[in-house]
Amino acid sequence: MPLTRDQHLYSDIAANAADAIMYADRDGIIRLWNRGAQRIFGFSTEEALGQSLDIIIPPKLRERHWQGYATCIKTGNTRYGDKLLSVPALTKSSEQCSSEFSIVLLTDSQGKPSGVAAILRDVTERWEKDQQLRRRLRELEQALNK
């Protein structure tokens, strides 16, 4: 059955968005990876598809991530569904970036969780500027208190 006009629009928007749009199945295996994800993380679609989400999760955060992911898939509940999350992410070159993202829990035809989609933005530049401002503010406060 051919795609409708709306389905083409959704597909084109998702494929070409500057933000990363990705989907991982129940096991955390990447099944969708758009151009934004390629740009932010450095992995081509071919390199990312079929890989674990571990390719973008810093090692120190993996255990916590997988505990939450398993609970979400098992229960069908997430406390993050309508919240913007801020976490470090990992690029292909093993550099850490700051990211903000939202998630969508997807279900199969029986209503059971089938995986999680995420829309992610690299906010590293803003995070670094915020850190510089905070350092400068601390320095100024210390100078005033001398």
TrEMBL record:
Boundaries of every PAC domain copy: 83-135
UniProt domain PAS: residue ranges: 6-58
Gene3D superfamilies given in the database record: PAS domain
InterPro entries assigned to the protein according to its UniProt record, in alphabetical order: Biofilm_reg_signaling, PAS, PAS-assoc_C, PAS-like_dom_sf, PAS_4
PANTHER family per UniProt: BIOFILM ARCHITECTURE MAINTENANCE PROTEIN MBAA, DIGUANYLATE CYCLASE DGCP
Protein name per the record: PAS/PAC sensor protein
Organism the protein comes from: Desulfuromonas acetoxidans (strain DSM 684 / 11070)
